[in-house]
Write a structure and sequence with these properties.
Length: about 220
C-alpha cells in the first residue's frame, strides 16, 4: 500500500512537472517582446518565425538577444526549479516539456519555433557538460561551415554523446536523444535545402523568406 502511494505521488509529480514545463516553454518571448517594442506581429516579418533569428531581422539586436535569453532561459528554469523542488526526474520531464511547449505553443495554435535555443538551455541545466559540448559544437561548426541550421543539427547529435560517454549521465543522455530527434524533425525543410546546397549561410538573407511556407529559423530561433 505504501509502495502504491509512493508510485502515485511520483506519477503525479511527473505529470505536474510536464504540464508546468510545457506552459513555461510555450511563452513566445519573440512575439511578446516585439509587440511591446511596437514592432507588431513578428510572424508577419521575414521567415514568420517567433525566434531570435527572425527578431534580428527587425534590426533590433537587443530584442533578438533578449529573445534568445528568454527562449534558452525558460528551458533551463523549468529544469532547475523542478529539480530543486522535487527531483532530477521531474526536472528532466519539465525541461523536455518546455521544448515541446516552445515548438507547439497552445497560445499560437501550436505553431512555434524550432526549439534549438530552448533545447540548449534545457541541456545545460540538466547536465552542464552536455550543454557545454553542444554549445561548443555549434560554435565550431558555425565557424567552419557558416550555416546555422547545420551547426545546430550537429550540436544536437553531440549533446547525448557527451552525456553518455563524457559525463556518464544516462538520464541526461536519453533526454538529449529525445530532444535531438524532435529538433531534427522540426528542421526537415532545412535538411532538404542542405542536401540541395540551398541553405543560406549565417548573415545571408533568405531571398524568399516571406513566401517560404515552411517558415524556417536558425539556432537562435530557439
Amino acid at each position: 500500500m505504501e509502495l502504491d502511494a509512493t508510485y502515485k505521488a511520483m506519477l503525479m509529480s511527473l505529470q505536474v512537472a510536464t504540464v508546468c514545463g510545457y506552459l513555461l516553454g510555450s511563452i513566445p518571448f519573440g512575439l511578446v517582446l516585439t509587440r511591446m517594442a511596437g514592432l507588431g506581429d513578428i510572424r508577419k516579418i521575414g521567415s514568420g518565425n517567433i525566434g531570435a533569428t527572425n527578431v534580428l531581422r527587425t534590426g533590433r539586436k537587443g530584442l533578438a538577444f533578449l529573445t534568445l535569453i528568454g527562449d534558452a532561459g525558460k528551458g533551463a528554469f523549468a529544469v532547475l526549479i523542478f529539480t530543486h523542488l522535487v527531483g532530477v526526474e521531474q526536472g528532466i520531464f519539465a525541461g523536455g516539456a518546455a521544448v515541446i511547449g516552445h515548438m507547439f505553443p497552445v497560445w499560437l495554435r501550436f505553431k512555434g519555433g524550432k526549439g534549438v535555443a530552448t533545447t540548449l538551455g534545457t541541456l545545460a541545466a540538466v547536465n552542464w557538460i552536455m550543454g557545454l559540448c553542444a554549445a561548443l559544437t555549434w560554435l565550431v561548426m558555425a565557424l567552419i561551415f557558416r550555416i546555422s541550421s547545420l551547426s545546430a543539427l550537429i550540436a544536437m547529435i553531440a549533446a547525448p554523446l557527451a552525456a553518455f560517454f563524457i559525463a556518464n549521465d544516462p538520464g541526461a543522455g536519453w533526454l538529449g536523444v529525445f530532444l535531438a530527434v524532435i529538433v531534427w524533425l522540426a528542421h526537415h525543410a532545412n535538411i532538404r535545402r542542405l542536401l540541395h546546397g540551398e541553405e543560406p549561410k549565417i548573415g545571408q538573407k533568405k531571398k524568399d523568406a516571406q513566401a517560404d511556407g515552411d517558415k524556417d529559423e536558425d539556432i537562435q530561433a530557439s
